Amino acid sequence: MIPQRMIDEVRQSSDIVDIVSDYVRLNPSGRHFKALSPFTQEKTPSFIVSPDKQIYKCFSSGKGGNVFTFIMEMEKVTFPEAVEMLAKRAGIDLGSYRQQKSQQEEQQQSSQHDTLRWAARLFYRTLMSEAGSKAYAYLASKRGLDAATIRKFGLGFAPDSWEFLLDAARRDHVPQEQLAALGLVTRHRERNSLYDTFRNRIIFPILTVGGQVAGFGGRTLSNDPQTPKYINSPESAIFEKSKLLYGMHAAKNEIRRQETAILVEGYMDVIAMHQAGFTNTVASSGTALTRYQAKILKRYTSRVLFLYDGDNAGKKSMLSGIDILLAEGLTPWVVMLPGGDDPDSFIRNYGKEAFQEELESEKRSFQEFQLQCYRDAGLMEDPDTASKAISAMTRSIALIGDPVQKELYLDELSKKLDLSRQTLSKVMATSADDRAPRHESRGPNRHEAAPNAADDLRPISVAERTFLEALLESTSYGNEVLDFAASHESMFTLEHPAARAIFTHLVERFRAMDDKEGHIDITSEISSVEMEQARNLAFDILIRLPVSEAARPTPAELEQHARRCLTHFLTAVKNIMLEPLQKQKQEIIAQLQAAASAREQERLSRELHEHNQQLRTMEQEVDESIKGILGE
Predict the structure, then answer these.
(1) Measured distance CA(265)–CA(278) in Å, rounded
(2) What distance separates the 2 farthest-apart alpha carbons in the chain?
(3) Domain 248-440 has CATH 3.40.50.2300
(4) What is the CA radius of gyration of the chain?
(5) What pLDDT does 442 receive?
(6) Residues 372/310, Cβ–Cβ less than 8 Å
(7) Contact 265, 314 (CB under 8 A)
(8) Is it the case that residue 535 has pLDDT exceeding 80?
(9) DSSP, residue by residue, 400-437
(10) Per residue in 273-301, pLDDT tens?
């Protein structure tokens, strides 16, 4: 169990704007930042981040929270795992604060990311040593990489040895079972022994967006045609190649700045591009572009420039990738390099200036690229094949979410093909219908159509919301309101389930505090409320509360704010206590208005008169109690 003080230290060391920026593009909006929701598909930003309060609120999904709940939502991890991830990001060691375990248990539970980082450092040190001289010469002389670039990407070398990594692991007390689980060593089935997976290979550490080592790619230095040119770490919970973009950790800031990502195929392409100054480049690492990778790109930009190899395989990958990017709201562009060059070879052969000129002169829209590919393949010469090609192009247009862009691309295609816009619209509608079942069943977004559980709850009353607003705001100025609430809990009858959950949780947490004068961390406390609807309601209130303009309020100012909060809170308490009587009064009035007989009207009139007297008496009693509490 992680102590609360360590959780607080991790939270205070993790700026929510910085954390959220790893997942979505934030734009300044007054004292807040705005973005498109990472939880739903929307066109108008409704996701708000408050740097002052260190919380977020998504008004399209209703979700809200702090850095911990955001990581839990995005990474689908538990609260302790979210704390772990943020602690590592902030450079905070939680190991010494855990419950004591045996040495064997500690070794078994040592972090897989720590082991991957250990391996990456070992490979890098080996490349820089005498043992890696041949590999270093290959990178420096043949591939033209300088020392700074090699260091930036953490390139390494695995010697031509069966047990180089194993021997180092024994020396550094790294568990062999963990090496096997991560694919760094392979088990020989017949001999039941372990050997190094990467041998005589240049090593490319593959990092997450946040900069953690997730796996490795290895390029052989052998000339044996039977030896695979590249191998990668096996798929695991940590290393899912389809969910990673090589170089993203180094490119994300420049992608955001330039508002464009350059997408290439291989490791060396990324590295060469970065060395040449094109630091907004990432790679799909030899795999066909996936929707998950497109979602990562969408966090930082709306434009992607495809720069794959110009062979048939590269063209096919770009054609399928275009639809994936369009479906995620990105605009694809394409550049085809001449003479079978890839970015790495072109830059080495002609220089970065010539490469820049090539990017500017050969850049074309995805639609131009599609049409050129179909013409080069001879598909536009026959009516039957041309019809299929045109259908494919209109399917791509149908994926565009922006209606204006969709219309413009349809008009452009009409001009290029000399076909009427009406005909293309019919083809597009048919194509979209054909694709509908596939989109309805796609995995990651299926939950978006599901009704929100909060819809099953009735709206919270104005009185109860005001009550919660005063309670939550008061925690910024001391515990006077919480103390009063804990001492008079029997007075409060909250009808809304989420309101009850918030109130009960805060009262229980206050009672459990050893130091009743200590400060309660309201965002952390709300994050630990079990009911999701209650958490979302509380963060909705917190994001709307005004921010104190005073950086360091004086004791007198704190007392003044605390007094104001208590007054508002007690007024809300009064309204809550009187609310049942007010409802009964309205019910009697409705019955009186609908009464048919004079006798029924007379009875209800007496009942209304008695009820009004009871209401006035109750109101006077509550007012007297409030005056006594306030010392008036």
Answers:
(1) 15
(2) 108
(3) no
(4) 32
(5) 32
(6) no
(7) yes
(8) yes
(9) ---HHHHHHHHHHHHHHHT--HHHHHHHHHHHHHHHHH
(10) 999 999 999 998 766 788 889 988 887 88
Domain spans of the chain? Answer: 4-100, 110-237, 248-440, 456-630
Residue 165 tokens read as 């990594």
Amino acid letter, 239 = F
Strand order across the 303-306 sheet: 281-283, 261-264, 303-306, 331-334, 364-365
Q: Which are the contacts of 212, defined by CB distance < 8 A and separation ≥ 6?
A: 88, 113, 116, 117
Whole-number Cα distances in Å, 361 to 297, 312, 337, 364, 367: 24, 22, 11, 9, 17
Residue 572 falls in which region: left (phi positive, over 0), alpha (psi -120 to 50) or beta: alpha
Helix runs in 77-144, H state only: 79-90, 103-108, 112-127, 133-137
Q: Was domain 110-237 assigned CATH 3.90.980.10?
A: yes
Residues 6+ apart with CB under 8 A from 415: none
Distance (Å, rounded) from C-alpha 307 to C-alpha 334? 6
- 405: which 2 tokens? 């862009």
Long-range CB contacts for residues 74-82, cutoff 8 Å, separation at least 24: 74/23, 74/38, 79/527, 79/528, 80/2
- The domain 4-100 belongs to what CATH superfamily? Zinc finger, CHC2-typedomain (3.90.580.10)
**Calpha distance 112→214 (Å, rounded):** 9
Q: Does residue 152 surpass a pLDDT of 90?
A: yes
Exposure string over 479-518, b if 16+ CB within 10 A, otherwise e: bebbbbbbeeeeebebebbbbbbbbebbbebbeeeeeeee
**pLDDT per residue over 190-219, tens digit each?**
777 899 999 999 999 999 887 888 899 999
The overall average pLDDT reported for the chain is 82
**8 Å CB contact between 74 and 432:** no
